[in-house]
Amino acid sequence: MSVLVTPGSDGRFGEFGGRFVPETLVPACQELEAAFNDAWADPSFRKELDDVLREYAGRPSMLTECHNLSEQLGIRLILKREDLNHTGSHKINNVLGQALLAKRMGKKRIVAETGAGQHGVASATAAALFGLECKVYMGEVDVARQELNVFRMRLLGSDVEAVTSGSRTLKDAVNEAMRDWVATVESTHYCLGSVMGPHPYPYMVRQFHRVIGNEAFSQCNEMLGTNPDVVVACVGGGSNAMGIFSGFVDTNARLVGVEPAGGAAVTRGQPGVVHGMKSYLMQDEFGQVQEAHSISAGLDYPGVGPEHSYLASIGRAEYPTVTDDEVIEAFQLMARSEGIIPALECAHAMAWITREAHTMKGKTVLMNLSGRGDKDVGQMMNVLGGLK
Amino acid sequence: MTGKLEQTLRQRIDGGGKCLVPYITGGYPGWVDSLRACAANGADAIEIGLPFSDPVMDGPVIQASSQVALDSGATPVSILHEIRTLDVGVPLVVMCYYNTVFHAGHERFAQDLVAAGVSAAIIPDLPLEESGDWCAAADKAGVETVMLAAPTAPDERLPRVTERARGFVYSVGLLGVTGERSSLSSTATALAARVKKVTTKPVLVGVGVSNAEQAVEASKVSDGVIMGAAVVRRMMEGGSEAVASFIKEVRTALDSSK
Fold first, then answer.
1. Pairing state of beta strands A63-65 and B19-25?
2. Is A66 a catalytic residue?
3. CATH code for position A36
4. For domain B4-9+20-256, which architecture applies?
């Protein structure tokens, strides 16, 4: 039996998941669940999605063997190049799926939350492609540190609203997108950007990202003749990690989801309920959600998708943390050693690999390079100062 | 068995009147004075919000009041502790988000409410399908759980929601979050009428009921109203005196529309 859970109508992955939303949104979530199940079982929908992923997003994404880093670290390092997708990250897989679904459901408008801006850019892109109205909520802090992506979204015709409540980051952008959806649910689809939120989102978004794991599984078998020993991805909400894990969860590969030390839901959190789901959550002694603090806007989130909580609880995947300093080192290491500037999010995965390489000598390590670092260059210029 | 909240509301309804349930953000500076002002000026019951870090059903006014309360150190424990010593003479209803309940533990939270003298609870992010464990604990402890009926609910869903409701049925007045609106949404009266058809429990309209005139309008098809942002804004701007005169004004309007 597969370790990969197909949740029933209760939306549970073990004890995690569920649908903890205001009563107003329950019918919308039920409608979405039915529409997704119907579409996913419909060969014409799947073909339409496959076509657009190939012809527009540029799939399949390739594998790159990192010869220089492999030699330096004493491992065999292979990257899954989601950074080469159109719009520069894995986020496009999910967004194209949800936009097609929104159209199929007759919705004319989508709303989205974004942290680093990658999901917002992908949503704005899909909205432009399919003729949908799009509004993106983004924390004020993130608007400031990801101004290029804000401009991209506006250039693509989307409305970007800076969220000024709470910690003014991803968590609060989700709150505001949900508030919008409560008011506009009849005409609007909430295009949620990660494997989180109320059922069916964690399941649906994973299914849309399974293409990463499915491709990587066959590509690894072609390249290596076997499965990798270790599969590594960064985890905020955890969509790129669920995408690649889904291809290897039933193999013997060790699965590693790397969280930022300042947003370590699995390591530092306890089960809790926010944003429609039961999952590990950083919270205080009274259940108030704590603010995450990470150099990476995309991982600056106090929770994690419920399927990750499940995989952690059964011991199938592990969720170590890395510090901002380690991430900054890894960001530069990848650039200098391989000529690849990774997104700061992915630099978390690289940072863990760098730190732990000495325990993995001779092993084959597959890392999901889920996004490119162009968006982070401005921020890193400030962090690093002028490089000589 | 009918609980204290429902009994109290029924007395008002059976006497031909309409119910008025104001909302006060617990822990906001001076909130206890505002609570007393509500009780003294014609509230039938009072909803006390336990502030939460991520209030997804709330608009700007209640969000801001919650943030002030949290910043001044309010916690669910401190608020319930203060409630324990109050004797305002009307049933108290706690409004809180589910993580506050889940984190404390269902049974412990229900017992804490009882110990504080709270009659009922409203948990806006705990829909029917997820409410089983909490409702079992609440029923056992004698806490009435108010359920929300939403304008988006299909006809087959409404009777299941009202069946599970205790105290009253909270008929959500519009598609959207809490906050004042210039006019009462037509969905408010439409939904209240649908809900009244499927239940004999008290049906109160809340979310977007902003002034005395709108309260009277909403009460024509329902048993009364819950008023949140309109009360909280007055508490923030003018303290308990502003709350007192507003509640008195709404009470008078409801009574004279009989």
1. unpaired
2. yes
3. 3.40.50.1100
4. Alpha-Beta Barrel (3.20)
Annotation says A189 is catalytic = no
Contact flag B76-A185 (C-beta cutoff 8 Å): no
Per the structure, the complete domain to which residue A111 belongs is given by: 13-52+91-201
| Residue B68 forms contact with A (CB below 8 Å) | no
* A295, A260 contact by CB (below 8 A): yes
Calculate ∠ Cα A89-A170-A274, nearest 5°: 115
ipTM of this model? 0.96
Query: How do residues A48-95 score in pLDDT, each as one tens digit?
Result: 999 999 999 999 999 999 999 999 999 999 999 999 999 999 999 999
Fill in the amino acid letter for B66: S
Separation of alpha carbons B94 and B78, rounded Å:
13
Give the domain ranges of chain B.
4-9+20-256
Minimum CA–CA partner of A163 in chain B: B60
* Residue A47: DSSP 8-state: H
pTM to 2 decimal places: 0.96
Backbone CA torsion sign across B225, B228, B233, B235: positive
Q: A22 vs B147: CB contact, 8 Å cut-off?
A: no
Cα three-residue angle A284-B58-A265, rounded to 5 degrees:
30
